[in-house]
Amino acid sequence: MTALDNWLGNVKIGVVGLGYVGLPLAVEFGKKLPVVGFDINAARIEALRRGEDETRETSPEELSEAAMLSLSSDHDSLRDCNVYIVTVPTPIDRHKRPDLRPLLSASKTVGAALKPGDLVIYESTVFPGCTEEDCVPILESESGLRLNVDFAVGYSPERINPGDREHRLPSIKKVTSGSNAEAAERVDALYRQIITAGTFLAESIKVAEAAKVIENTQRDLNIALINELAMIFNRMEIDTEAVLQAAGSKWNFLPFRPGLVGGHCIGVDPYYLTHKAEAIGYHPEIILAGRRLNDNMPGYVAGQMVKAMLKRRIQVEGARILVLGLSFKENCPDLRNSKVVDLVRELADYGMKVDVYDPMIKGEDARQEYDIDPIAAPERANYDGIILAVAHGDFGAVQLDQIRQYGKDTCVVYDLKYALDRQLADVRL
Q: Which positions are annotated as active-site residues?
């Protein structure tokens, strides 16, 4: 038995943060290794113990299969662990600056439990240098230990795709890294226990951090390009989807589509990179231009809806509008940074009365976070305009192929997602 095998045989993992990233990770590791799944939200822990995952990323059956997983909101439960994996969110504040408070708080929690020989791995998306420059000092201060002398750190960025039942944690290749050669080897070996797609060992933590943050920055910029093309084609009265299908007949054309870019990844991660760039004296023009364009899309969509209604001689002020979908993406109940919220507010600013229907979300979350009260089900023949904003696979009480039945005799249907048959939609992005 090698030293690495011996180390793996004595690993006890503490996963700090049981959201969209942490829970699937804790479950997969919990099938093979002792794991403590820790979250400061006691209600979340109790729900998971009942087999209920509000994120819908894990099923009751998957939770029960993780026989070596224990769940806790007690900080003391982490003290027996020797590997800590931090999976807390890294949002932005209202000024679009990185909000590291959850990450730094989690670092304090881990630092208080840290012992000589332990390994700390971060999965949260950050800017290059954050792990070693912002998190490690807290670990050292809380524990009284020194990096690469008493303990080591690693970074392995999450690649969870919420709502995607095909690309799950084990089937997505994992980037790994460590603060020294031994740590990197251990981090890589640990993830190889659960990642069937294999791992990619980056040459440093900063490289791994940078790789993660540019993954979503690249997607953001590509979508911004297609959004701008859609604006141009709309002025020329050319169907954008028809153009994209024609261009897509070439083997190397990238299949991006226009739309609202929200959520806690694509709509957030570029700001982490631009923050760091500006801190070192560089102003990133292209990245921020893409962000501005994507952030302004809700206003553009609302304007397109108003124009289409005016062409039909529909009174805008006081019009009834049905918005289908409020979460930031398909088949996902996550409302964080949903740009549909911005669209609803834009429509309301025109004096419209907006009903929101989304069977995936919890109504109390929408009320608490955005002061939006979703309806239980839309009424038939009741709306002057209908916007399909999120194309859930299951829309509950609504059958999308019968979407026009919810509109009045004169009604505008706007398909943001190219999810409807062409004859059902009056406007497409």
A: 265
DSSP type of residue 378:
P
Dist CA 136 CA 274 (whole Å): 22
Decide the pairing of beta strands 35-38 and 69-72: parallel
pTM beyond cutoff 0.90: yes
CB 86 within 8 A of CB 120: yes
DSSP state of 233: H
Strand partners, 355: 322
pLDDT digit string (tens) for 220-266?
Answer: 999 999 999 999 999 999 999 999 999 999 999 999 999 999 888 88
DSSP codes, 56-92: -SS-HHHHHH-TTEEEE--GGGGTT-SEEEE-----B
Q: Are 338 and 402 in contact (CB under 8 A)?
A: no
Please report, for residues 173, 217, 346, 376, the alpha-carbon distance to residue 274 in angstroms, rounded to integers and kept in the order given. Answer: 26, 10, 27, 41
Q: What does 111-172 look like in DSSP terms, one character per residue?
A: HHH--TT-EEEE-S---TTHIIIIIHHHHHHHH---BTTTBEEEE------TT-SSS-GGGS
> Which residues, at least 6 apart from 1, have a Cβ–Cβ distance to it below 8 Å?
9
The HSE-up count of residue 161 (CA atoms within 13 Å, CB side) is 12
Quick one: which of 323, 340, 352, 191 has its CA closest to 261? 340
Helix (H, G, I), strand (E, B) or coil at 32: coil
